[in-house]
Amino acid sequence: MADPVNFTIDGRQVQASPGTLLINAAKQAGIEIPAFCYYDGLSLQAACRMCLVEVEKTPKLQVACTLPVAEGMVVHTDSAQVRQARKGTLEFLLTNHPLDCPVCDKGGECELQDMVFRYGAGESRFVEAKIHVDEKQWSPIVFYDAPRCILCYRCVRICGEGLGVNALGIGNRGAVSEIVPNRGDHLECDECGACIDICPVGALTSGTYRYKTRPWEMEHVGTICTHCSNGCKTTLGVRNGHIIRANNRDRSGLNGEFLCVKGRYAFDFNEHPERLTAPLVRATNGELRPVSWAQALATVAKKFTELRARNGKFAVLGSNHTTNEENYLLQKFARQVLRTSNIDHHRTGDVATLMDALHDRQNALATTSDLYNSKAALVIGSDLAQEQPFIAFQLRANWRHHKAHVYAVTPGPVREDNYATTLNAEPGREFEALESLREKLAAEPELIIVFGAAIKGQAVARLVEFGDSLNIPVKYVCLVDYSNSRGASDMGVVPGLLPGYHSVQDAGLEPGLNYDQILAATDLDAVWVVGTNPVARQPIAATNAFVLVQDLFLTETARRADVVLPAASAYEKNGTVTNVCGDVQKLSRGPKTMGAKSDLEIIALLAKEMREDLRATSPEAVFQEIRKSVRGYDVPFAVVETGGAAHTVPLNGRVAFESEPEAIRSAGNTLFTSGTLGRFSKMLNAVIESPGALYEDPHKRSFVRPGSVQVETVTQEK
Amino acid sequence: MTFSPGLEERFQKLLNSYPPGRQRSAVVPMLLYAQDELGAVTQELVEEVARRCGVTPLQVDEVIGYYSMLHRKPLGKYHVQVCTNIACQAVGGEELYSHASRTLKLGNKEVSRDGLISLEEVECIGACSWAPAIQVNYDFHHFVTPERFDQLMAALRDGTYGRKAS
Amino acid sequence: MRYNEPSPLEQMVISYRFDLPNSTSIDTYLANDGYVAIQKAIGLTPEAIIDELKASSLRGRGGAGFPTGMKWSFVPRNTGKPSYVICNSDESEPGTCKDRLLMENDPHQLIEGMLIAGWTIKSNKGYVVIRGEYRYLIEIVDRAIAEAYARGYLGKNILGSGWDFDLYTHSGAGAYECGEETALLESLEGKRGVPRLKPPFPAVVGAFQSPTILNNTETLSSIPVILRKGGAWYAELGLPKNGGTRLMCVSGHVNKPGVYELPMGFPLMRLINEVCGGMRNGKKLKAVIPGGSSSPVLKAEECDIPLDYDSLAKAKTMAGSGGLVVLDEDTDIVAVALRTIKFYAHESCGWCIPCREGTAWLKKIIGRFHDGGGQQSDIDLIAELANNMLGRTFCPLGDAAAMPTAAFVAKFRDEFESRLNHSRTAQAVPELAIV
Predict the structure, then answer these.
(1) What's the CA gap between A645 and A624, in Å, rounded?
(2) Over the Cα atoms of chain B, what is R_g?
(3) What is d(CA B29, CA B11) in angstroms, rounded to the nearest whole number?
(4) What is the torsion angle, in degrees rounded to the nearest 10, for the CA atoms of residue A606, residue A612, residue A615 and residue A621?
(5) According to a count of CB atoms within 10 Å of the terminal CB, is the N or C end of chain A lower?
(6) Is-contact C213 C82, C-beta < 8 A?
(7) Cβ neighbours, 10 Å, residue B145
């Protein structure tokens, strides 16, 4: 590291590393220099002129957001001249900005309001007519009110630089300049809403949130998005038990401010009118009738006890949305209480085989933040922007900020084509493409290999061999599709594996039936389905089996059930989930749906009803048990408890396990689908239906297409 | 979308004039030349220019909004541009514009019903020392008095207007 | 052609071919000292050429008046990257109409100037960026370029030097802001003409992210004669640090408005009285805008001043683009101030807040004031708002709007005040369309 630069700011001698922009150096010294257009991580604009400061020996005020600190520089950020300049700039800004803060959607959390409060003048000298332009709606999600826009260009930059979508531009010029969408009068984009969240004022507002509440009326609950596997933190704005919005404006969590359309807007499934609020039991006339929890639990306990007594055949299908604690307890219940190894979940990536292939490595599993810091990354068989949006953002940011080299081997065009070295390879021919990249990859100082479900079974080991042959440090990420797919695998919701990738044979058991086998078996006596919807794909062959379903909705599977127990959503419970990179994070309960219970509570109540002792049953206690007993999960408790991400490394010796590659299927979700949950999100459906909302690069054909391995149109997993 | 052979040739020359991979440079001149032929910037033209220059239609839209000579609505066959900036103002440019507006019965950027003439009050056109000045399409006319203006307009109407710079 | 009679007081150094028959043809040019300077340049090192320019004390004729030799010396050479020569022919500063004449009457002189620039930095490509309104000039320059190619002054292996240089025209489409050099480069790259963050300066990172010489038409047109006759000779024509001649564009209330080539430092009053035949209709002089509409106005009593960069800077105005608007005693300064700010509001690119909002607000206040709705407090407010823009905008356009506005109020406050008192009887103003 070069020697720090010494400079003086507001009379204080401080240091900063060379090249630090004055605005950041001041921040490090605890001094705020106000700015609208400056935004950490985005390109410099110097457009708002709010950050002007006095630098001795320069005649004009200097722009702190573009000026690197220099040795001996003497800066004044609060001189009369600086205060006057800020006041003048704010006065200019307010000339055409409506002064209707009481009815503005942004009131109370508006940066312009805050700036004027702190630095502005108390009176207005502008007595002329303001420029008025009507508000426009660009998509079900995005509304734009030009008069409120202060033209800081944050939205344009986050869309172009951050997401690589480039859906926003600047129209007109001078005082009538405004932001314009890419399709004339509407947007064709990811609908991620990053532009709305990054807007410092009320110019961009969201169709889900606008005019529903005042920000201070909400409670803000930081939790983890329940849709894809990337594990983005989303802050729920909850008012009177209802989620009003989701965002991540505090940039906390491993995703910073990133969220995709699902993280920001697809929380509305939670309040869908079809949410189940009472247990249902099939009556003698064949109808599912609402009953009390006590009645429903008694019915199930009785049935399970009876069947167990006569050595009935059980099978359990777990979820890739439920928490680690729920998955852990479910497999414990299955193996201890029901004495069955017939347990599985919809596996979307071959995690277990990767753990086996890497069994003797140190530092072979990449964290989410590694994706931003590694010098190079290789993506195989995934359209990240569609399927793994935060990973796509992270790699792109790594390229933008650190000039990382990104490579992609995919069957069709992907958004990474815009900046990465990409090769197209038909499914099954990925290794030929890898060979052609070998020289370049081997020249990298390090590499992260991110691979999709096209690489499974034998191919995983082959991939690791390829990685070894490069003779550079390589880390891996096995892509999976849902919010806790990784956790389901790690917690042993798999027929042959106990939590932490111990073979069931270690416990003297034999591997049971897998997901497909369970559905195909005709001789099962009971099938317990937790948070998954297999019947959307294929009926349960055991037509006489007693079927218990825990779910949010009366899904195709629930319709087949004998007892349906209404489950709480991920947003309604505490616990932990593990993201695609193995980072464990904490869920915090926001809203509550009357009548529904968390799957953990249901499992625990059922055990009690059957007079079985599972010992720990609270989320906290189960997590402690996991930390103690599951390989790789002995993570620092404080990190998780305080909302951080703790990396799990469930590597320790060979995994005695048959991979069953045929059981591994990507969910094929796009940005706008999320299995069964997505079907109950009005906003996701509105976005899909709106003209042009399905993102497609005009110069490229869509990557996820029917018939390719990435899409299994039959798969409609929750 | 195809243009006249002359314009196609011009575009080819234009695209070849920039360094490799810099075909975006052609956006502004291409729009202006095409507009001259088509009478306005149409959506089809936006898409075409985007395609030829390797940019998105949005990037073309941004440019159209910025440059004052680019317009999406057709102007008259003869676009009469009266400068009223300070040099012309000093010697009657504003009065000339008012005269034009009154006699042509056209407001700013309005087109006559027959599509023959449109009027625009413009910023400095670079004829300050020979003011007041107007441009009819790309032709300059210097030292334009109201009488001279009327004669010019009559010539536009009766088809005797020829290409000349005063 | 010329649009006004030349003056016997003119010292024609770059305009002497204007009156020749077929002045645009390469034959005329060759018969009159044409392409001699480039031959000479090819025998010189870049350092020697730059030294000659420095000796000439030629300063940029676009407005900023930066020493040209110095500017060229900042361009890194032999970087292995391509480099470019750009001519800023986006002439749009109100009051200025000289580049038009240079291209219309002597395009080869410009081409030769660009060739010398290209040779100096071993660039292989140049562009003449011409404002869209000057369509007929694009045709003229294109024809001249074609002639130069045909005679081997452009293209491959120029004059047997082994060096190649291609030259093209590039049209703008109506944007004053594109006269700002980095905005011009953005426009050349097919984008909105929004200026770039500086540093880096165009000399280092200019056109297509490469080292670039970027000069005004008149500046580049002055290069051949400097090389031909020597920097010292050229410097002698003008004043110290203000070498040579410039085309002065006189407009407004004089008997003989026109573009005249005069030595730097030529006295303003002689320009009005001797070159331009005095004030029109025997009126008294009220004020002169000395360097395009961006330059602060000079009151009549301040007009006893030599027209060079330093003298005008000392008088707190600027030589700017050489566009002089002479205003007589009948001139309504409030109307001039209004027309000026309307222009800047129309041309503000909108990128930064103080310029975008400041020009729009000033236009509204001065407009209201002009139309008789003014209040006493508006006068100070105008001055204060101009002050709030000065030095705080992203590019010089903000200053260009604020400086003249502040000067109009400061120097003609009485006119603003009397406007206030006589607002009811203010003469009807023509309905103006530019808003």
Answers:
(1) 16
(2) 18
(3) 9
(4) 0
(5) N
(6) no
(7) 14
Cβ–Cβ gap B128/C325 under 8 Å: yes
Which two three-digit tokens encode residue A416?
Answer: 């990474």
Pairing of strands A646-647, A583-587: antiparallel
Q: Residue C80 — very low, low, confident or very high, per pLDDT cuts 50/70/90?
A: confident
- Among partner residues A47, A93, A95, which is closest to C351 by beta-carbon distance? A47
The letter for the amino acid at A463 is L
| Element of type H or E holding A497 | strand A497-498
Please check the confidence at residue A197 and state whether its pLDDT lies above 80.
Answer: yes
Q: What is the DSSP letter of A152?
A: -
Q: Where are the beta strands (DSSP E) in B4-111?
A: 78-83
Compute the C-alpha angle B160/B161/B165, nearest 5°.
Answer: 145
Q: Which residues pair with C252 in a beta bridge?
A: C326
Q: Give the DSSP per-residue string, A233-302.
A: EEEEEEETTEEEEEE-TT--STTTT---HHHHHGGGGGG-TT---S-EEE-TTS-EEE--HHHHHHHHHH
Q: How far apart are CA A490 and CA C381, in angstroms?
A: 69
What's the Cα-to-Cα distance from B75 to each of B78, B80, B120, B136, rounded to whole Å?
A: 8, 10, 10, 12
Count of alpha carbons within 13 Å of B131, Cβ hemisphere only?
A: 38
Q: How far apart are CA A535 and CA A564, in angstroms?
A: 14
Q: Token pair of A435, please?
A: 């060979």
Q: What's the pLDDT at C32?
A: 97
Q: How many CA atoms lie within 13 A of A144 on its CB side?
A: 22
Angle among Cα C147, C152, C158 to the nearest 5 degrees reads 140
Question: HSE (CB half, 13 Å, CA atoms) of C162?
Answer: 1
Distances (CA, A) of A585 to A20, A258, A625: 32, 16, 16
**Interface predicted TM-score (ipTM):** 0.96
Tokens of B35: 């507009």
Residue A64 and residue A53 in contact, taking contact as beta carbons nearer than 8 Å: yes
Please tell me the distance in Å from A699's CA to the nearest CA on chain B.
9
CA distance B59 to B26: 12
For A106-117, write each residue's pLDDT tens digit. 999 999 999 999
Question: What H or E segment, with its residue span, contains residue A178?
Answer: strand A178-181
Check the CA dihedral C92-C94-C98-C101 and report its sign: positive
Residue B21 touches chain C, beta carbons under 8 Å: no
**Tokens 């334009």 belong to residue:** B144
Q: Contact B61/A184, CB-based, under 8 Å? A: yes
**How far off is chain A from B66, nearest CA to CA, in Å?**
5
Q: Is the Cβ of B127 closer than 8 Å to some Cβ of chain C?
A: yes
Residue C189: how many other CB atoms lie within 10 Å: 16
Q: What is the pLDDT of residues B36-51, one digit of tens each?
A: 999 999 999 999 999 9
- Mean pLDDT, rounded, for A163-170: 96
- Closest by CA to A624, choosing from A647, A640, A643, is A640
Paired sense of beta strands A52-55 and A74-76, if any = antiparallel
A386 contacts A674 by C-beta, under 8 angstroms: no
d(C-alpha C183, C-alpha C195), whole Å? 4
